[in-house]
Amino acid sequence: MSYQKKYLPLVLGIAIAAGIFIGGKLNFSDAPDRLFTTNSKKDKLNRLIDYIDYDYVEDVNTDSIVDVTVNGILDNLDPHSVYIPKKDMQRSTENMKGDFVGIGVSFYTFRDTITVIKTVEGGPSEKAGIKGGDRILMANGDSLYGKGVEDDDILNRLRGPVNSKVNLTILRKGEPELLNFTVKRGVIPIKSVDAAYMLTEKLGYIKVNRFAESTYREFKKGLKKLLDLGASEIALDLRGNPGGFLHIAEQLADEFLSKDKLILFTKNKRGDVEKSYATRKGSFEEGKVFVLIDENSASASEIVAGALQDNDKGTIVGRRSYGKGLVQREMDLGDGSAVRLTVSRYFTPTGRSIQRPYEKNGHKDYFEEYFDRLDSGELLNPSKIEVADSLKFKTPKGKTVYGGGGIIPDVFVPIDNSLHNETLQYIEQYQFFDNFIFRQLDLDRHAYDGISRRDFIDSFKIDDDLVVKFQDYVNTQTRHKITFVAYNDEVKQYLKATLADQLFGNGAFEEVFNQTDIMIDEVIKLSEGR
């Protein structure tokens, strides 16, 4: 199963729907008997469902009708109030919790057989001796190969209670017989910090892909690594980060702000205001900070960027962020499903609401605003960003900032059209890079045994023959004939970064890909005073 490396605007709607939400119990001022008492509006819905259930001429799955009804109600609210059906709750919870129980492998279904891409470092499968390229044929005697086996079936067989055991039958190239491994399932982290490494002798880089329960712990670990390596400046990359938990965003912002600095405040429908302040525990309150954002940075990402910008801490670099200033809370619906309902708005320290309008054109247009920005030229020219003088605010040091639709960066960096053309987006979306590199590695995994991670990142070159092979592979997978003449260098960069990831993991993709990233180049220039 491949995993995401780069983000695409086309899938933003799904990611953004998660938004920010606050865990815990509801604290309504109304008593429960008032909130949930019978009334005519609820009676009407209940009666309609009962009529369909008992009297309608044909059998109908009323559960599906209820799902449609709930979604219909939420469609009349804001775009970020969403329904999570029972079947999606486990995956949603795992994603926000930041871990799951399993055997610790990334896999790819290759010719109807589960093939291990790589094992999680320190995870159950690595400890048991499973390696990249191994074919998992059976789990506890049940076959896992063949055309009829779905990914969900595979996951259900490989996952189970923590510390439970699963017996795996493995086919390994070069071994004359099948191998048997007993793997004890464990807690497997879903990484939210993709990379933490040094860009220069003084500038550390850390990439956060979402704000899950585990994110702050991962961030602290990455930040400590950079400080130990001598970082006196930090580039915090929040590009493509769709958000997550509010309190995790507050904890990250706290690392950079001194005691009693306002991080944000929230306001609900009754006008109740809750303010969040920085504490004394921040470990990077003195050094320079550069926050990288783009049009796909949303919610919790914008909280961090807005808190630092409004407190005159650091420099925001990139393009205008998504523009989500609403806070959701997850509420259990009693049957295993839940709703994430918008319960308040948040404001940056200067009082800005960065929520962009959603009332006029409907949810579909709201989630596709990226294309409006592209058509208007905003992604290439900061003068095309529409701002309202009525939403102008001042930071303590007198810098002008704007509300009404995202965080506008201090230093603008245009979109790199060489990496955001439709062909490369299509290839990345359908995971052709991942699958091709896996197939190449599978031909001879020992070809890279003598190359260290550092030597690979610094010196390894992708030759033209591999690009031609990749082009041929893509053209066997699609009806559209594609040539890479116009962006040969970009394809090489993707191939090298993907190969680095499958060989070394642990941020190798980002370390390779960032070598030609124009926003990273701009941050380095700012750091060096150029």
TrEMBL record:
Gene3D superfamilies xref list: 2-enoyl-CoA Hydratase, Chain A, domain 1, 2.30.42.10, 3.30.750.44
Transmembrane segments: 7-28
SUPFAM superfamilies per the UniProt record, alphabetical: ClpP/crotonase, PDZ domain-like
Location of the PDZ domain: 86-159
GO biological process: proteolysis; signal transduction
Keyword match Transmembrane: yes
Pfam hit, one: PDZ_2
A single GO molecular function term of this UniProt record: endopeptidase activity
Keyword Nuclease listed: no
SMART domains referenced in this protein's UniProt entry, alphabetically: PDZ, TSPc
Gene Ontology terms: cellular component: outer membrane-bounded periplasmic space
Keywords attached to this entry: Hydrolase, Membrane, Protease, Serine protease, Transmembrane, Transmembrane helix
The family this protein is said to belong to: Belongs to the peptidase S41A family.
Protein name: Carboxyl-terminal processing protease
Native organism taxonomy: Bacteria, Pseudomonadati, Bacteroidota, Flavobacteriia, Flavobacteriales
